[in-house]
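### Sample
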Amino acid sequence: MAKEEGSHWSHVLKRRIAVLEKDERNEEEKKAEETELFTKYYTEWRSGVETDESYKTIPRFYYKLPAEDEVLLQKLREESRAVFLQRKSRELLDNEELQNLWFLLDKHQVPPVSGDEAMINYEAFLQVGEKAGPKCRNFFTARVYSKLLHNDPYGRISIMQFFNYVMRKVWLHQTRIGLSLYDVAGQGYLRESDLENYILELIPTLPQLDGLEKSFYSFYVCTAVRKFFFFLDPLRTGKIKIQDILACSFLDDLLELRDEELSKESQESNWFSAPSALRVYGQYLNLDKDHNGMLSKEELSRYGTATLTSVFLDRVFQECLTYDGEMDYKTYLDFVLALENRKEPAALQYIFKLLDMENLGYLNVFSLNFFFRAIQEQMKLHGQEPVFFQDVKDEIFDMVKPKDPYKITLQDLVNSCQGDTVVSILIDLNGFWTYENREMLVTNDDSSNTVDLDET
């Protein structure tokens, strides 16, 4: 076959060469023909005559959004989106269909049982897929089976793991459709007001929030929404992709409040719980000594252990949004989220911007010294022997190991996994003291653990 193809191309090439050799025209005649063809095609192009109309077969993929004054077109778009989302919702498995799927899986389990889990092989898996109905077709594929295949010696997968996978997928699609209903722009993202409406209407469905007074709803919604926007909108565009909301764990934390038996520890660690929201709002009210609903720099200085440096607080009020020099609750929430989550990149970005006074994009020895001098002054006020900056500077650079030995970028802080320690050293006397006495604290912890063991 290959030989035949080779001889064919050889024949074509020889014939082409023979044709060229027979062309007895001189160079001027060939040049004249080339010029004639060029003139012909150029004239057609300038006159707008299109010879190639292949573009007409390309399907339309861009539709201009209706303008604000095109009320009818806007209404038509909203209605068509609503119909589309309803159709997508009907394509999802309902509770009865999920229950039927579980019965089918349980009926087709393949022995022996692995531990406490019922298992199913690929052949039985496909049989269930045929009986489960068209809505389940996308779940019964080789790709899904291989994802759930682990170390079973018989090549089976866990029925429970597969069912949980299906449940998770259905939940994600349901949630995406639910969030899309609040996407007024229809562009796949939620604005702050859209997310506020979503959470406000979600509150009655969360048993753990039953005790909230309705007068507190607006503050609760503000508290909840700020976490989404602080971490998912680092560029402060005022909108978040629905895809990003689904990908993060915040929605899981929020919907965890559906559990009527949620433990006290889980509630305290969950930003969206009633005790957590009341704690943050209560702290804000306690700091607001003049009861004007806003915080001055002096009032904010008592935040936490009251050991944040005045230099750092000056930068907070210079960079953050204030009203007549005072901070409102929304700005305070960003401040709290940054200081309570110092290990997170979004929190480090918030604090780094405050430390980068000259907006250079990096911290140098000057900026480190500027902030650490405030720590040294606080140490003197508390009767402590000040630590030399040179020693602290060397330790910071050793911890971070920046690409440039004279500059520390935000990415350097994130990559080092020591960013929280570094910023604490520079802005908080208590954070610096904890770092300086870390060995003593570890020793005390070990001693207390030893005592506990002896007592038992």
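The chain has three domains: 72-179, 185-287, 293-450. This sample (Serine/threonine-protein phosphatase 2A regulatory subunit B'' subunit gamma) is used throughout the tutorial notebook.
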